[in-house]
Structures are given as structure tokens and as C-alpha cells.
């Protein structure tokens, strides 16, 4: 028995006839091929013969191709199908290269069969193409049908940080009162953050306002992260002097703090300053009372307590009646009935001069408040560290 093409010999002038040399008998057996020429493998035996012919292969390819084609529903798969079966490297083209192995008599008939299959597949392809085109819309209707009775999916909405919300509320209120919103740098010089605000190097207030310093060459001016928005007073006065100025300056501040429930190393402030002629303490009171009433509601009780800041004289602290207990005393107001919301005062004559104004002609008031503190009081938040810990469980409560 001989297995495979190795046992088959082809003789010139005897095309189409394979001879198997039987290893045991040493004799030869001829098999007339009559278009049953073996293509890839010839399994021949002296008793039994199984041949896979080019024509069988072709018929098989045709059948597989037609079945595959009937399942195609889109143009992309259709073009893949075309190259798989009818392309230059497609199965039919590959198989047709084997035509040369046929005898001269067999070749024409086989060639015709190839052409017939090609034509059949070509026209099946064209038919499928037009079918897909005409049914594309219908298929889209069927496949992409929307079940309008299904409940909708709620998109996850982003939201503003609670500090940003309160900052915007504050700036809106002051904008209504004619204040412009200004920006001032977070990185400042020692001169602007301290010296020009009456806080010289040996001033005890420096302890309270200690901060982070940026490394600078020896002898160069000290550069730091601002401890309050008050250097913005100098920036805005210098930009306006000798004309009147009325601005608020919201932004971040930094302190070298032991971080606790009440102290963060980074927080926001909103500074306000108004300088002009005939500005008095009554203007300061009227502005801040008006602000408190807009923030906490008309009729909100307020009080001013004397205080001290090196850059204002006189200085005050603004308290509003606790809106939770209405002045009766509770956990949020620490039983005092009052909540402290802002430091303020009349701009110190030295500071006015540093800003470019003449204190004999000009006067002004300034105030500073912390939006985180105001938010904590509004919502009864007992730990400032929630604000910048990035914990979504906290943040998503502020819709
Ligand atoms: N800068 C002060 C602070 O950080 C607040 C303040 C601003 C006080 C303006 C008076 C005037 O505490």
C-alpha cells in the first residue's frame, strides 16, 4: 500500500496516470484518472481508492461560500467574503493553480467548471449586495429597536465642590453690591504678605500666619505661599490709586498648621476692599450686614465685636446670630448663640499709603472671610478635613 503523493509517480506523456509502487510487491499499479486526479493527497490502495479531486474541492468551496454568503448581513463582512473566496489569494484562485497538474484532456472541462463556479459566486455576491442594501434600513429598524418602556439610565452628573458653590454665592452677593471680582497671586513675597500690611519680621502675628517658604538664593527676597488674601488689598489699591477701588478677591491660602478638625494647611478666603473719599465705618457695617442678610435671610441679626488686625484700625469681627438655634445656644455655635463669619476693619493709614493713597484724603474698609467656615456652619460639618480629602461620600451630598 502506498500512502500520499510520495508514492505517486508521474510519467511524461502519460499525464493523469499515477503509478503506485507497492513496497512489498515491488510491482506497479496504474490508475486511470479520468478527472479524478489527486490534488493534494492521493490515498491509493490496491484494493480501495479514495481521491479528493480538484472538482470535489471546488464543489466544496462553492457550497461553503454560498452558505456563508447567505448569512452575511453587512457590507464589511461581504467584502471579507469576497476576498476569502474570489480574491487573488482566495480559495478559488489558489485551487485553480492546481489546474496545471491535470492532463491536457482534463484541463478544459475543469477550467469550464472553475469559470462556472466563479460566475455563480459572482452573481450570488451581486444578489446579496443588493439584498443587503435594500434590507439595511429594515435590519437597522429590527436590530436597533429601542424599547421605550425600559426605565432610563440616570447619567452620573458632575457637581461643584461645596467650597466653589459658597465662593460663588459670596461673589454673587458682592457683585450685586457693585464689587468687582479680582484675582491675586497665591505665591507672594514676604513684603506683600506681611511687611506692607504692617506685619514686620518680629511681629508676634507672624506666628499665627506662619507659612511655606519657597527656596530662594541667599540674600534674595523671601517668597512664600500667601497666608491670607490680604496682599490682594495692596495689589488692587496699587492698580487703582488714586481712583476709588471696590473689589473682592477670592482664592486659596496656605498655613503651616497642625491639621485638625478646625485647621487645614490649605483653605479659601474672600477678601474685600473699598477705598475712596468719605468711606466710613458705617459703610463697612452696612456692606457686611447687607451681605449677612443676603446669605442667611432678611432680618438675620448681626453684631460687631472689637478685634485686632495689624492692617486695619479699628478692627472688628462680624458675628451672625446662629441660624440653627436662633440664638438660644447649640453645638454648632458652641452655646454662644453667635457665629463668627468675618474679620474686618478700616484700612490702616500705613496700608493706605503702601497702596498709593493719601490717608488725609482717602479712607476705606476691608474684610476677609473663609468660605469653608461658612459652609461648615451652614451644613453643620464638624471637620474641615472633609473638604479636601477627596472623599466622594462627602462631596456628593452637595447637590
Ligand atoms: N486677613 C485676615 C485673616 O486672615 C482677615 C481680614 C481681612 C481682617 C481683611 C481684616 C481685614 O485673618
In short:
With 399 residues, the protein is an alpha+beta fold.
Verbal overview:
This protein folds into two domains: 8-141, no CATH class; 162-395, BirA Bifunctional Protein, domain 2 (2-Layer Sandwich), CATH 3.30.930.10. It is elongated, with a radius of gyration of 46 Å. The strands form four sheets. The chain has a seven-stranded mixed sheet with strand order 7-11-12-16-15-14-13. 29% of the residues are buried. A hairpin with a 6-residue loop joins strand 3 (17-21) and strand 4 (28-32). Residues 1-50 have low confidence and may be disordered. The two termini are 86 Å apart. It contains twelve helices and 16 strands. Helix 5 packs across helix 11. By secondary structure, the protein is an alpha+beta fold. Phenylalanine binds next to strand 15 and strand 16.
Q: Architecture of the largest domain, CATH level 2?
A: 2-Layer Sandwich
Classified by CATH, the class of the largest domain is Alpha Beta
> Can you identify the CATH superfamily of the largest domain?
Bira Bifunctional Protein, Domain 2
The name CATH uses for the topology of the largest domain is BirA Bifunctional Protein, domain 2
| Cofactors, ions and other ligands in the entry | phenylalanine
Structure characteristics:
alpha+beta, BirA Bifunctional Protein, domain 2, 2 domains, three-stranded antiparallel beta sheet, elongated, binds phenylalanine
How are the SSEs placed, and which strands pair?
Elements (H helix, E strand, L loop, with lengths): L1 E2 L4 E3 L6 E5 L6 E5 L5 E7 L4 E5 H18 L3 H11 L5 H6 L9 H38 L18 H15 L3 E2 L5 E3 H4 L11 H4 L4 E2 L8 E3 L5 H10 L4 E10 L11 E11 L4 H16 L5 E8 L2 E10 L16 E10 L1 H6 L8 E7 L1 H9 L12 H4 L4
Parallel strand pairs: 7-11
Antiparallel strand pairs: 1-5, 2-3, 3-4, 5-6, 8-10, 9-10, 11-12, 12-16, 13-14, 14-15, 15-16
